[in-house]
Fold this protein.
Amino acid sequence: MIFVTGPLFGGKREYLQKVLGLSLEELSARAAFDVEELAAGEEPLEELALRLSQFDFVTANEVGCGVVPVEAEQRRFRERAGRLSCLLAQRADTVIRVCCGLPQVLKGEWEC
Amino acid sequence: MLTLVVGGAASGKSEWAENLVLALSGQRVYVATMEPYDGECLVRIDKHRRQRAGKGFLTLERFRDLERLEVPDGANVLLECMSNLLANELYSPQGGGKAAVLRGVERLCACSAHLTIVTNEVFSGGKDYGGDTLRYLRELGEVNRTLAAWADRVVEVVCGCPNVLKGRLL
């Protein structure tokens, strides 16, 4: 599995489409996008990470670089989202961070 | 030559960008985009002015419509910052939105020897924002990606240190 992280609206999907030569439809069939949103639910993170690692491509937005949220629910979400990304990165063969549409390989071998 | 410098708040991106421009020979022009609408803006503008003092920049204040800004031909131009400029173009009644921003950059790029643009990394704190903020983020994200695609060099500044995302440092 290839895990793509990075800032919101950084161009993760567009990057994958471009580098793989896939249409959004073709990519979507093999990918899970914006998976940090799943961290708002109740599913145990290990199970969630295992389930998501069945996809070829997984993208998540970095959400942990702001101020600690006032709302407890938001704090829980942020914590779970960050931990989920760590678990996905552990399972991934390749981890890429996309910022301003530009890739940086954080783990594994990958021809950008 | 176009360089895009991206970084979080107080990451040292402005100073890093200034030093980059200082290393170039030729006239230096600073295009300041912050519109001073309150005392806090004035304090911030003053801080940046003092940071630039003695570095030989000609400062041009321009809050929108860069397309019609007169800059000396062949200068090394530092544009700071994109997040203010975009907000001015999006929310001012006279503003021309994202398209005006990009046209302005194209124009500056064409008439300067080296254009350096400072922009903000404000995309890693979640998307639980009120009002129009998420739309603003989406637009700024698009602008940043377009500029990064045009740029010869893209540098993310972290704690004052450069992380090169595209091109070479020197």
Observations:
- The interface with chain B takes residues 7-11, 14, 61-67, 69, 74, 77-78, 99-102, 104 of chain A (CB under 8 Å).
- Chain A has four helices and five strands.
- Chain A has a mean pLDDT of 95.
- The radius of gyration of chain A is 14 Å.
